[in-house]
Amino acid sequence: MDTQADAVREPSPAGTLSDAAAPAEAPVATDPPATEPTAPAAAETAPATDEQATGVVPPSGRAPAPAPAATPPVGVAPAGPPPVLDHPGILESSERLREAVSALHLPLVVEDVDRSRVDRERLQAQLDDYLLPRLRRMDAPLLAVIGGSTGAGKSTLTNSLVRKEVTRSGVLRPTTRSPVLVHHPYDSGAFLSQRILPNLARVTAEAPEPIQPIDVDAPRITALRLVPHEGVPAGLAIIDAPDIDSVVDTNRELAVQLLAAADLWLFVTTASRYSDAVPWEMLRTASDRGASVAVILDRVPRDSIREVRTHLATLLRDRGLASSPLFTIPEARLTDGFLPDAVVKPLLTWLQRLAKDARSRDVIVRRTLAGALDSLRERVYVVADAADAQRDADAALRESLQATFAENTGVLRDRLSDGTILRGEVLARWQEWVGTGEFMRTLESSMGRIRDRITASLRGRPAPVEPLGEALQTGVQAIVRAAAQATLEQSVLGWRAIPAGAALIERAATTTTLAPDFEVRLARAVAEWHAGVVDLVEVEGQSRRLTARALSLGVDGTAAILTLVVFSHTLGDGNDSEAAAGTAALANRMLVAVFGEQAVRTLTAKAHADLVSRVDALMESERARIVGVLDAAGVLHDAGDRLRAAVGALEEAR
User: Fold this and answer.
1) Cα–Cα 20 to 30 A to 625, which of 15, 340, 546, 606?
2) Which of these, 77, 218, 190, lies nearest to 133 by C-alpha position?
């Protein structure tokens, strides 16, 4: 017998529907191996021909050619023993995979990141909502989710199956309504806990929520409404899911989540909507994941049943769903809001028989669970690749930032020793202190006479050295501040060239400006450095011989001269101004005359190293502050490898 035909047949006599009282019934399964459990079928015998199996004779008058064998239909045990899925190692490996998925964040804007975030969320949702709960409780009630497009009649069908209005039907649906889970009172304990759908709170009100206008900006649904009812057989629960093509984004997201949590999809479509793209996208997802699916063709005009059903059966076969049972519900007048008993009886009978047979439920549970596990590797690798893209973007941003700061800090070090500071205010204050232009003209005289002139000047009416010291500190602060700001600006330009960096800059505007306390820390660093220079002079001048010479300049004055030497000890590339070069040469000669050449070199090196160390620390603090924006994003560089290792361990456990 053609298995694919069996999967979509309605075994009424001659495959026809005479009236609403004789609806099409559920498919009849082929006889499974005697050693395997089988779910009850809606009829006792299978038709002998393909025409009887499909209910339609093709236009040519010949039966369609048999298609390759497909996966056995829902309710039929697949050939061979059922997969072993309740081994402790599978659960443990699945839990470790869940931990790896949960730890993953995709905060950076990279190519297709929105799609990747959805993939990660759906992967974690299926682990939380279905895989882990089912692995922990293989004997839990079978969960069937009724899903489909807007206006397909899902809520009416749900109410008609239990003969009670448990969910709101109609065009005006509560936009924040909770999905309804109807179950037998005996099974309340299985659903009151957070075992399945743990992120949805439980609500136990049985009355349908009031009708409200549709709001496309409705908030995310956070509750699951439980309705115990004896119309649902024990061992089975039914969820009425929101529309998969709802205009409300949160409704669509919830519909996808609920379908992923189901052991069995009851997919409802209509004669006018069964070819729509959205339902087929969902069905393709079900096929890819090996989910157990039953298709319900609702609201079919009586004169179009054969044509519509044949076309739908063909579409199912072409899309890998040939094994899905197909139920047809013709157009019928509602009574008290319910479909006639006879119309829903075949589906209800099939579900009741399925619920009563624990071994048959086990077949469906294991098939859907195995399909979900089979789909994990590809899905996890997609998410792992997204994690790698985050890692690469994070590394690129860090490398760009590091390169910019390293280059600019090097330039700043050079500017602190190449005489750049010997201009403007500093030069003017120096000339005031040492005797203006007349003193500068004595450069060609001997160093002894220069020192004597300074000494005489200082013993007479000495000019204060404080303005020179202040000018030197102000000058170095200006150079460092300008370099730090320029470095930030270049870093921003580098980040803007990378999509992830541009997005971070938009979210963290502080990356474009210096830290609020930078100015205070800069002034303190320069002041402490200057105090350190004074200490160096005092320590070096402990020798009685040097003290006598140093006293002629004063400690502060000698420190000011040493500062000038530090700021100009690499000057001399030929591009410097005559005044700066002369000032540097004079300061160095004066210092050598006081301390000696070797001591000057040692003092200059120590003072310069101290200044560079403090300036480097300031620049590093700015770099670290910007890196902190990346650190806060939480990109894990080994996340992709961890995901692949986790799913590999799960496959090994299976």
Assistant:
1) 606
2) 190
User: 463 is written with which tokens?
Assistant: 């000019």
Q: Which helix (H) or strand (E) holds 593?
A: helix 578-595
Domain span at residue 526 reads: 390-641
- The whole-angstrom distance between residue 487's C-alpha and the CA centroid of its chain comes to 30
Cα distances (Å, whole numbers) of residue 617 to 90, 405, 526, 613: 52, 12, 12, 6
Q: If DSSP codes are grouped into helix, strand and coil, which group holds residue 203?
A: strand
| Residue 473 counted as domain residue | yes
Q: Is residue 21's pLDDT more than 70?
A: no
Under 8 Å between Cβ of 93 and 646: yes
d(CA 525, CA 484): 14
Q: Is residue 545 part of a domain?
A: yes
- 567/93 Cα distance (integer angstroms): 64
Q: Cα–Cα distance between 628 and 336 in angstroms, integer?
A: 63
Average pLDDT over residues 527-552: 74
Residue 584 belongs to a domain = yes
Mean pLDDT, residues 485-513 taken together:
90
Amino acid identity at 154: K
Helix (H) or strand (E) holding 473, with range, is helix 466-496
Structure tokens at 598: 């070797």
